[in-house]
User: Fold this.
Amino acid sequence: MPQIQIALNRFGLGIRAGETPPADPRRWLLDQLERYDPAPAAVASLPGSRQLVTQLAAVRLDRQEREKAMAEQSGQQMAAQADNPEREILRPLRQSYVEAAAARNMAAFASATPFMERLVAFWSNHFAVSIDKPATLGLAGAFENEAIRPHVMGKFSSMLLAVERHPAMLLYLDQAQSIGPNSKLAEAAQRRGAQRQPGLNENLAREILELHTLGVRSGYSQADVTEFAKALTGWTVTGLGRIARLLPYTSGEYAFVPQLHEPGPRTVAGKRYADDGEKMGQAILMDLAAHPATARHIATKLARHFAADDPPAPLVARLEQAFLKTGGDLPALYRILIDAPEIWEAKGSKFRQPWEWLTAVQRASGVPFPAQATVFTLNQLGQSPWKPGSPAGWDDIAASWAAPDALLRRVEVANRYARSLTALDARALAPKLFPDSLSEATRQAIARADSGQQALALLFVSPEMLRR
Assistant:
């Protein structure tokens, strides 16, 4: 594959319609590190997490009032109102989700720094939240814009701290409801004989160790998970549930609430930490961010994303060493990727995930999908925005995306999209998209198409478009 194609597609998101290919592919990528805008126009005007948590609180209150009203009604009245109340209650959150997904699509579509947009998506997937939970539905976009984008050019530790304290992550992994068994709040509940006793939730601690930092099979134990979870008690979101009634914090923000914190020192990954309230959890996070296992975990994922499904060991080693040497400086890792011969001389190619493919198709045509159609189409392709279904995020290997039924859905989308692009000529467009690398098979397929729209659809599902 020519180097210009690797720069545009392996590192970037495909060339934009009318764009001149870069004369120096590596310099073009390096320059993007300097020109990165963490708040592009498409996402800058979206509501922030404070406003969205307030929206979530209103939705929860609406649900409680409806449930109370239904409990007071007759069976016939309840049946009449139960047709689809959940969908109606969640409508404001879904609207915020659609707007954020559309803005994200526009940012990638219009970006002059597509390498950086790819990195935003990479880190957002590494620290995945899923909209499967209503609490996360409206906040997923704000999570990416507030906890990921501002830290893409910083230290890994800074991004880690921002992610773990963001309301979306605290709600998604149930940290907001984790309460120390011997905390002041738990003791008060025991004294008054409350039916529902507060308790410890280990979800956030476990996923930090397994997915965000050290990685699986890195040697941490269940005891480490429990101790870390106790250290994190008190990290919560203001303006929701009992916290809203307890303390006069500003609604919709991260806060450390001492009344929820489990007292006592903790030992995590062999190191003992004195109980210093909020600072204890921060200290553990910083040590995890600098751990050799974390360096290996991050290096492997970056190499897999940019080089090959089976990441080259020498590239992983160089990234790992740079991570440890620079204290997790992310731009240092990006520069190693740009210099890596394993990427520029790669014999194979990465199969584009649905979001990558759809973004490349839109950039090639110069026509973005409408807002609602963006979510619908990605859902059809099997990769709904911020809905990987688990904290592990989306898979990054071809076997997860290249099944026959998945390819058939891309053909359906390509045909539908091509019918709306009556002014585009695939025969003229193809060599601009893939200068010096358009295959003879694709050229002939386009030339022999029965119509202009069929030629365009064939170009969109050609091997050149499906891979990067």
